[in-house]
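Field log, afternoon session.

UNIT: design team B
ACTIVITY: writing a sequence onto a fixed backbone
BACKBONE:
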């Protein structure tokens, strides 16, 4: 019995490449299985589903639009009103059920005092929803 010491050691060399042929074969088999089973799964029973019309449960009242020009004058929709009349109308709207929303449109040159007076009147009247109408900025500019 002879033993080889040193010299050529070709049989113990590590192979650094991976044989991917079995992996590709398994993946192709899985692909074929999925292609065959997907059409079987997608078959469904043909049904005529009922159609339902959505009806609102609660009607929304018309929103109140108040405009304030640069001089501080108040406009209920498009009709000029004074401060006392504005408060009276807001109090009448505040007791309605459901309560309307108040939309405030203020001129760009309007003093904050005039807008603040409208907001204070809305608060006194018990109006819960107050919003401001603004002009969106120009696109691309």
């Amino acid at each position: 019995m002879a033993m080889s010491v040193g010299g050529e050691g070709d049989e113990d060399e590590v192979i650094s490449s991976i044989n991917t042929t079995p992996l590709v074969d398994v993946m192709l088999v899985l692909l074929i299985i999925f292609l065959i089973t997907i059409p079987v799964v997608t078959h469904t029973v043909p049904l005529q589903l009922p159609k339902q019309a959505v009806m609102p449960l609660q009607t929304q009242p018309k929103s109140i639009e108040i405009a304030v020009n640069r001089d501080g004058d108040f406009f209920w929709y498009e009709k000029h009103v004074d401060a006392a009349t504005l408060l009276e109308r807001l109090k009448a709207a505040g007791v309605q059920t459901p309560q309307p929303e108040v939309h405030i449109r203020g001129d760009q040159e309007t003093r904050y005092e005039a807008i603040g007076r409208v907001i204070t009147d809305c608060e006194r009247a018990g109006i819960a929803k107050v919003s401001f109408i603004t002009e969106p900025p120009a696109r691309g500019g």
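LOG NOTE: The chain has a mean pLDDT of 84.
NEXT ACTIVITY: expression trials, pending approval
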